[in-house]
Amino acid sequence: MMVTNLCTSPSSTITLRADEWVHITTIPNKPGTKYWVSAYVNVTGGTISMSSYGDISASQRVSYELAATNAGPMAMHYSVESGNPTVTVTSMLICTLDEYQANKTLLDSIKYFTGDSMPLA
Question: What is the mean pLDDT of the chain?
């Protein structure tokens, strides 16, 4: 099994900003490519909504499929549902959907992932 993490600094902590796209990797997307994104999201002080995941008011891992529409770096954003939340992202895994599907059983069984234990792009 070989999965390349496209996130160049998977254990970095990135602070998101409400209603703004914030880069979580520096490697450009390939338009038309489907990716698997998995990250630990820490929400304090309110509730947020992530378009591909729904409402989040606590710390949790989010995972979702994303189809690249442009060649810019991978980014995340959220909107505020209540309060004045601070949102950070860490422990990221970004790979092609094909790599994820080929290794789904193993990747899903890890349960806790720091992102530093596989080849990085």
Answer: 86
